[in-house]
Amino acid sequence: MTANDAIATSGFGRLFRGQTAIDFYGHRRVGLIIAIVVIVVTLLSLSTRGLNLGLDFEGGDAWDVPASEMFGVDEAEEVLNDNGISTTGSRIQRRTSETTDVITVQVEEVPADVALAVTDDFAAAAGVTAQDISFSFTSSTWGSEITEKALRALIIFLIVVSIFISIRFEWRMAVAALVAMAHDVVVTVGVYSVLQFEVTPATVIAFLTILAYSLYDTIVVFDRIRENEGKYAGVRMPYEDVVNISMNQVLMRSINTSLSSILPVISLLLIGAGLLGADTLAEFALALLVGMLSGVYSSIFVATPLLATLKADAGRKTRRERLTGDDLRAAVIGAGVTGRVSGQSSSKSKGGDDLDDAKAAASSNETSVVQPVDRLLSHAPRPRKKKRR
Amino acid sequence: MNRRLWFSLIGVVLIVVVALVGNLATGNTPILGLDLQGGVSVILAPVEPASSDDLIVIRDLIRNELENRGIAEPDVRVQGETIVVDLPGVRDQQEALDAVDVSGVVELRPVLNFSDCPAPDAADSVPGDSVPADSVPEPTAPGNELLPTRDGSVQCVGPAQGTGEVFVRGSADLTGDSGWGVAVGLRSDGQATWNNLANQCYEMTPTCPSTQPGIRGQIAIVLDSVIQSSPQVNQPNFGDSVAITGSFSRGEAEDLAAVLNRGAFPVEVEAQEARTVSASAGADSLNAAIIAGLIGVALVLTFLVAYYRWLALVIVGGLTIWAMMVFSLAAFVSSWTNYALSLAGVTGIIVAVGVTVDSYVVFFERIKDELRNGRTVKNAAPRSFKMTWRTIWSADLVSVIGALILFWLSVGSVRGFALYLGLTTICDLLVCYFFTRPAVLLLSRSKLMARRERVLGVEVATA
């Protein structure tokens, strides 16, 4: 027992044993400022550069080139490359029926002279005349209607989710979770705008994935806050402390989960796109990577501080300084679960920073921080009865 | 208690394995999207010259119509003067041609008679159905036709006086105040056409006579030479909307609304030919995604085994079960609908691995906390699961709600995304409750754990 409760000396050891005492709330301004900077950059970039919408959104040009032994998908790709047209934004397909066999090449709109040059090159490569190649405009496949419907669905989803979180938790958590989610989506959109990546339907899917992931991550963190809130209800623990304690308790989980989610995405990016050369994967994986990193960041540095701020304004009086350092650590360890608090950790906290005006049950000779927790959780775990059914 | 846990554990493994073997044995695999597997492309051309705006309108109408018929994620675009419809997961060109046969203009024609038509051409159009009877004197203007109704009877209708274009696109909706009915908006430029016809029928002029005593003239709504409905006209002039009521069942009203909504094809289009389309992203991309994904998952598992040691076995088992379950369900869904798995979908599933792993991480971190506070493994496991389950279902429920709403309300690839988000999340919940819980609880009671002094890197109290 005693060995367990010794505070690890190294940072990682503390992390591993759940003994961290990081004052997340105290650093909330840093987190919020970074978030605001990122959002401002995104909005600036969106208003000046906009998004680079792909073929499926904007339409483009299409060629139908007769396919033959000597002209296939790879040759068509070469022609595009020779003319300086990006193949990541294009779509090259072979279309066959009993009577026809053509390579359909669709690219984002190109200037007329380039289009003519490409037509000639296709003709040369396929060994046919330019008249045999049909060149036409191709429309978007993603009509405004799809966007409208998706947006409407999204808005209804967000409303329902807000109601759900408000019922399951409380409305302030709903606000905080939605703000964090918006932050993540904005950050990802920002990456697309700043780097001018092409937006394809797959990108939209990536955005939605990020949205779902962000909400999920935030709710897991909030669930712990909610639980601790109930645990400390009796001792009127300031909300900032509850938040700090909860954040430190779920820190290891957050790190493990983020690693588990992000490793496959990094693998997609480095191995799939880098080594195996699947270009279509690259931008998609990058969007996901940025979005998921942002999702983890925002549930810690955006959602929770915001929640604490909202709650602080909600009338709960702070009666003393926030717990920091060893006091916080003691609380983090002591309240890990509804278990026993070791004597060592409770002795670690001093009554020094207790500015409590002490009308609560806490005002005995012990400190107000750990002692009530101790009382609350004083029973030793009861051994399970051996029952056989 | 133990017996129930074993039952759940073995049960879920058996079910999943049987489902997977069943699917593999019948060759039932998830359909892959256009980008991965290709499909069939149908080229539609308008029968008369159409403006590019009309073509865009037709594009949207076709996509809607396909989605309404349960053909998921078609890729519809205007290319030059034609409309190209790419269908994923369709191998057969004829099947594709039939599926895309959605053209057809809705016509508005006055009803002349309920039994037969004296016009000679009418008999040709519905062979065998009509018994020519010249005893009934009827106007025999050219263009009269005897057309079948949906319930199998026939009506004689006059020439078309308008098309479905008089209605506002997509405005038809069910009304249910006094029996099911349909309300549809009238376009400002269609109002005159509609009212002209409605007036004739209301006044019971010879072009739209009363067919039965006490009943005013009727307007037949005709699609592809089948009368969908022939409502009686009860007022001479209509404002900006028309309400059609009658003895509809809900289904009939829904069908009529669908007809009115689709009836807005500005120009009729005809399928020209079907072509097989090759994958655009190609097998390389799919393989790259799968290889990279597997390497990524292997890395995750290595990390988790290093971190959680023995308990990570449960994660490995759980993820295997989860993957098999997702595959089986995806194959099952594919056989019922044709929601195709695109490259985005494959990567989405790889990302879902992360979220699935989270339920284990939350669980195990909780056990670690409990152990640190001096509980035995045996004691800590069930307590931890109780708390974890609360967290997991709250968080997963949000994803499920999102999946349901997006699936219900959106179209195209967003819908496909919603489907796979829902599938993977529900599998996560199922595996968490029916596999992870019994596995960890049984493990915590086993001798294997009882002998160990350190679990999850935390010293264990002895009971």
Give a verbal description of the structure.
- The complex is a heterodimer of chains A (389) and B (463).
- In chain A, 60% of the residues lie in helices and 8% in strands.
- Chain A is of the alpha+beta class.
- Chain A has three domains: 22-52 and 143-312, Multidrug efflux transporter AcrB transmembrane domain (Multidrug efflux transporter AcrB transmembrane fold), CATH 1.20.1640; 60-138, Alpha-Beta Plaits, CATH 3.30.70; 325-376, no CATH class.
- In chain A, strands 3-4-2-5 form a four-stranded antiparallel β-sheet, covered by helices on one side. Chain A has a two-stranded parallel ribbon with strand order 1-6.
- Chain B has three domains: 2-34 and 280-459, Up-down Bundle (Multidrug efflux transporter AcrB transmembrane fold), CATH 1.20.1640.10; 39-101, Alpha-Beta Plaits, CATH 3.30.70; 106-264, Gyrase A, domain 2 (2-Layer Sandwich), CATH 3.30.1360.200.
- In chain B, 51% of the residues lie in helices and 17% in strands.
- Chain B is built from 13 helices and 15 strands.
- Chain B has helices at 2-25, 34-37, 52-68, 93-99, 120-125, 191-203, 250-262, 282-308, 312-336, 343-372, 377-409, 412-445, 447-450, and strands at 39-46, 75-79, 82-88, 106-113, 145-148, 154-157, 162-163, 173-175, 180-185, 219-223, 226-229, 241-248, 269-277, 454-455, 458-459.
- In chain B, the strands form four sheets. In chain B, strands 4, 5, 6, 7, 10 and 11 form a six-stranded antiparallel β-sheet that branches.
- The longest helix of chain B is centred in the last third of the chain and has 34 residues, at 412-445.
- The radius of gyration of chain B is 31 Å and the shape is elongated.
- At the A-B interface, helix 1, strand 3, strand 5, helix 7 and helix 9 of A face helix 1, helix 3, strand 2, strand 13 and helix 8 of B.
